[in-house]
Amino acid sequence: xxxxxxxxxxxxxxxxxxxxxxxxxxxxxxxxxxxxxxxxxxxxxxxxxxxxxxxxxxxxxxxxxx
Length: 66
What we know:
By secondary structure, the chain is an all-alpha fold. It has helices at about 15-40, 50-55, 60-65. Helix 1 crosses helix 2 (about 50-55). The chain starts with 12 loop residues before the first helix and ends with a helix. The relative contact order is 0.13.
């Protein structure tokens, strides 16, 4: 049996806006990497590993803002 802790966040308006922006940026970074992997798959190329994808994504604006 594993124990889980449930934490409820109660952010104020400013913190809520920051969390929303961080969620948006992280989803953009995920979508970029997913796009690259899908194109590699459909083009029958070798799929990049985590470290190669990280180096590729680190140059994007969304990653820099995040």
